[in-house]
From TrEMBL:
<keyword id="KW-0969">Cilium</keyword>
<comment type="subunit">
    <text>The basal body constitutes a major portion of the flagellar organelle and consists of four rings (L,P,S, and M) mounted on a central rod. The rod consists of about 26 subunits of FlgG in the distal portion, and FlgB, FlgC and FlgF are thought to build up the proximal portion of the rod with about 6 subunits each.</text>
</comment>
<feature type="domain" description="Flagellar basal body rod protein N-terminal">
    <location>
        <begin position="7"/>
        <end position="32"/>
    </location>
</feature>
<comment type="similarity">
    <text>Belongs to the flagella basal body rod proteins family.</text>
</comment>
<dbReference type="Pfam" id="PF00460">
    <property type="entry name" value="Flg_bb_rod"/>
</dbReference>
<feature type="domain" description="Flagellar basal-body/hook protein C-terminal">
    <location>
        <begin position="88"/>
        <end position="131"/>
    </location>
</feature>
<dbReference type="InterPro" id="IPR006299">
    <property type="entry name" value="FlgC"/>
</dbReference>
<dbReference type="InterPro" id="IPR001444">
    <property type="entry name" value="Flag_bb_rod_N"/>
</dbReference>
<dbReference type="Pfam" id="PF06429">
    <property type="entry name" value="Flg_bbr_C"/>
</dbReference>
<protein>
    <recommendedName>
        <fullName>Flagellar basal-body rod protein FlgC</fullName>
    </recommendedName>
</protein>
<keyword id="KW-0966">Cell projection</keyword>
<dbReference type="InterPro" id="IPR019776">
    <property type="entry name" value="Flagellar_basal_body_rod_CS"/>
</dbReference>
<keyword id="KW-0975">Bacterial flagellum</keyword>
<dbReference type="InterPro" id="IPR010930">
    <property type="entry name" value="Flg_bb/hook_C_dom"/>
</dbReference>
<keyword id="KW-0282">Flagellum</keyword>
Amino acid sequence: MSLFNIFNVSGSAMSAQSQRLNAVASNLANADSATSASGEAYRAKQVIFEAVPLAAGATAVKVQRVIEDPSPLKMMYDPKHPMADDKGYVAMPNVNAVDEMVNMLSASRSYQTNVETMNAAKTLLLKTLTLGQ
């Protein structure tokens, strides 16, 4: 694999992890929201990645799609809430703050690793250019 492919692979991974971090931020921001823009309870977003073959046997990553988490909503008993049903329950988001924080740490570490990989490849290319001097 060429050193130039490393930039494509790491760049695509950084872009995908950035979208993952955005989804986590959205999930955490809406963790206590009773409604979303659609008027229904917010559902956590999950990012689905896809491997994309590149030239010379390299594989990049891209976001295939962003889906809503199919897990059930949390039902909270609050009969005074304006969104409460006839039994007094309010549908709250299915966001688990602990899982989202772990997801955020994983995505940020992956992003950081890809930055370091790109920097190492850049250093190798610069050292290669100085060999002929």
